[in-house]
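Quick review question:
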């Protein structure tokens, strides 16, 4: 099926079946800004009585709510313990992006949209909020049970409707081309409300999925793949369908697996120029879709564009922020200093910097007062998408290639 035509018909069906009357990418509202702290006293050394109370951390009045609402707030501030790819830097495409897709909220005015967010959020469908490494999800959908796949951890397989539909479609495509295919393992997608999911950097806004490999041998989830055990016909069918039938942003995969898949694709007659656009190569004029990432010799990490869910998220983000139902990228907590504290000690405790503390509190020196309350900047909320998604065209080959039908259960196949 032609990927571009399929996308258009699917979005049209979604818009037609929506309870709403169809969202120009209207101008975004200015986002609320945390109130500035009042100017402090002169920068002189302060002392505290010997019976000073222990440090007290309280919420800033502006602070948004955390995971009990729509997610996106996490106390963990570093990423050195996390694994996997973070947000990709945008790269200009070689061709013009596709026309803006019709959106179910196209004609809904901001006032009505605000009412729906607060009173009938289920009507909005899925919303992907912010970046994949600083985001949240509203209206997430759980990966359903099915005979063609095996869910490893159901609690962490929540994503947007588009993400789940894309994944189901590609798995069904493999089963159609290769009857008798074993179920594919589905790893992490995200949590119901998005936000930080250990041990990942991403998987926060409903657009990332971890998917296992097709093997020629009995094996378990997270088994390293190679020429000795990968079912390359089915692997290639899955990757090809992902590229041509979904709005994929990137596939993270170890180079060793990429090499096997490209060699197989070339052996069945796929166009070298198109493969350059998929894997990278001399003729490519844009970033490859399949990117190397350490630790991905055991599974695919797929990141999709979500033209509907991302636009919904972009429009409702200011509403959620204004009503304190989501955390901004930088938020503040209040900390009451105690005897013996210094800016260096406070910065280390809260994983921030002395300069950030001085800026947040308008301090002219490093001196602080005991028992005085200071603003502590924290990171970990949702980073907004300020502009509508510019959806690039799908990278389609010039001509179809006949499916070999090889793989597990086909005696003639040898990887």
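Suggested answer, residue by residue:
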């Amino acid at each position: 099926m032609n990927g571009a035509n399929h996308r258009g018909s699917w979005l049209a069906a979604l818009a037609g079946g929506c309870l709403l009357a169809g969202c120009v990418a209207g101008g975004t509202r200015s986002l609320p800004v945390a109130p500035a702290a009042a100017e402090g006293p002169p920068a002189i050394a302060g002392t505290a009585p010997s019976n000073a109370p222990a440090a007290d951390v309280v919420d800033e009045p502006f602070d948004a709510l955390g995971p009990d609402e729509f997610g996106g707030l996490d106390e963990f501030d570093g990423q050195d313990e996390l694994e996997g790819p973070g947000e990709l830097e945008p790269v200009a495409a070689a061709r013009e992006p596709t026309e803006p897709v019709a959106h179910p909220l196209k004609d809904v005015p901001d006032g009505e949209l605000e009412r729906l967010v607060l009173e009938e959020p289920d009507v909005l469908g899925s919303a992907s909020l912010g970046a994949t490494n600083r985001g949240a999800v509203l209206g997430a959908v759980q990966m359903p049970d099915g005979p063609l796949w095996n869910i490893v951890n159901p609690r962490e397989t929540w994503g947007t409707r588009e993400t789940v539909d894309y994944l189901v479609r590609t798995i069904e495509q493999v089963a159609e081309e290769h009857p008798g295919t074993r179920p594919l393992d589905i790893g992490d997608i995200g949590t119901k409300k998005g936000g930080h999911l250990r041990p990942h950097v991403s998987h926060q806004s409903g657009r990332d999925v971890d998917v296992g490999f097709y093997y020629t041998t009995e094996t378990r989830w997270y088994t390293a793949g190679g020429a000795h055990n990968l079912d390359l016909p089915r692997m290639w069918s899955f990757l090809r369908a992902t590229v041509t039938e979904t709005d994929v942003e990137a596939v993270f995969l170890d180079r060793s697996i990429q090499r096997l898949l490209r060699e197989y694709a070339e052996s069945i007659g796929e166009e070298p120029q198109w493969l350059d656009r998929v894997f990278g190569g001399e003729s490519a004029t844009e970033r490859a879709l399949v990117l190397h990432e350490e630790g991905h010799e055991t599974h695919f990490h797929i990141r999709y564009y979500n033209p509907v869910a991302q636009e919904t998220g972009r429009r409702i983000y200011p509403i959620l922020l204004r009503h304190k139902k989501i955390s901004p990228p930088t938020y503040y907590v209040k900390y009451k200093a105690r005897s013996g504290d210094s800016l260096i000690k406070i910065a280390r405790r809260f994983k921030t910097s002395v300069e950030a503390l001085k800026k947040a509190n308008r301090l002219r020196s490093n001196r602080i007062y005991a028992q005085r309350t200071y603003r502590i900047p924290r990171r970990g909320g949702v980073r907004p998408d300020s502009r509508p998604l510019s959806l690039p065209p799908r990278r389609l080959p010039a001509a179809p290639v006949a499916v070999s039908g090889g793989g597990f259960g086909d005696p003639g196949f040898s990887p």
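Why it works: Residues 161-177 form the longest helix (17 residues). Residues 1-82, 91-96, 407-415 have pLDDT under 50 and may be disordered.
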